[in-house]
Amino acid sequence: MEGKITLITPPDIYENYNQSLLIIGLDEHDQDQASLWLGTHAKDLNLNFYLYQGENNIPWLFYALSKANATFVNIDTQSAIINILGSYILGKPNIFYTCKDENMKLLLSHINNNFVPNIDTFLKKVING
C-alpha cells in the first residue's frame, strides 16, 4: 500500500488521525532534502505536513503547533515573525530546531535541547523513532 503525504499551508486546516509534522522556515536545500528522505523512507506512511514560512497568520501557526506531533524550526530563517516567536515555540514540547551559528545554538540550548543538524535527522527521529 502506498502512503500519502498531505501538505497543509495557511490558511488551510486539515483534520484526520495521521501523524502530523509542522515545518517552520524551511529553505530550498531543506525542501530538497526532505523530499528525498521522504521518497526513500516514508513511502508507506500517511503524513500531514503543516508548512509555515512566515505568513502573517499567527492563529494558523498556533493551530498547527497544537496539532503537530513534532515540529522542526529553522532558526536561520529570514522571517521576522518566526524570529520573534522562535523562543516561545522552542519552549513547547516536541520541538526540534536547527541553526548554523554555534553561539545561537548554545544560547538556545538553555531553552530547548532538541537541536538537530538538518531536516533528515529530524525526520529520522520523529518518523522512524
Structural commentary:
- This protein has one domain (5-127): Rossmann fold (3-Layer(aba) Sandwich), CATH 3.40.50.
- 40% of the residues lie in helices and 19% in strands.
- It has five helices and five strands; from the N terminus they run ββαβαβαβαα.
- Strands 1-3-2-4-5 form a five-stranded parallel sheet, sandwiched between helices.
- The longest helix is centred in the N-terminal third of the chain and has 14 residues, at 28-41.
- The radius of gyration is 14 Å and the shape is globular.
Quick recap:
With 129 residues, this protein is an alpha/beta fold. The protein has helices at 28-41, 58-67, 80-90, 102-108, 119-127, and strands at residues 5-8, 19-24, 47-52, 70-74, 95-98.
Strand order of the largest sheet: 1-3-2-4-5
Number of helices: 5
Distance between the termini: 21 Å
- Would you identify the CATH H-level superfamily? Response regulator
Keywords:
single chain, 129 residues, Rossmann fold, 5 helices, globular
Reconstruct the topology from this structure.
Blueprint (H helix, E strand, L loop, with lengths): L4 E4 L10 E6 L3 H14 L5 E6 L5 H10 L2 E5 L5 H11 L4 E4 L3 H7 L10 H9 L2
Parallel strand pairs: 1-3, 2-3, 2-4, 4-5
